[in-house]
Specification:
about 150 residues; Thiol Ester Dehydrase, Chain A; 6-stranded antiparallel beta sheet
Length: about 150
Amino acid sequence: MSTVSKFNTFTFFSLPAAWWCGVRLRELSKQRAVVTVRYRWINQNPFKSMFWAVQGMAAELSTGAMVIDQIRQSDRRISMLVVRNKAVFTKKARGKITFVCEDGHKIEDALQLTVATGEGQTFWMNSVGRDETGDQVASFDFEWTVKLKS
């Protein structure tokens, strides 16, 4: 089973709201993650577009999947948590929306620092959502914190 398949299975059991809304990881590497979600009845808002929170779940997964994967590869007991986020919506989200995060390089530095110093580290990651025509519909920023578990 591929890492992407494992994450989608993880989503079903640990993030069922995201799974039922159609959030799926499509690509994962150390530097980049791609998550898609399609506008459907179950994730709509009253304005005939995708509910902002569903977009947020997809965007967060595009950042968090890389954090989870790099922590797993580090073989260290490290906790992770979103401490802050911000979002900008630029167009109604309809059809298939693809969120891409290419900030994986920020994770390794934070993990190395938290292991070396024993202190928690924070870092911001950005995920941009685009519709099928390539138009940006939203941009999400997540501030992650990582620290060694006791």
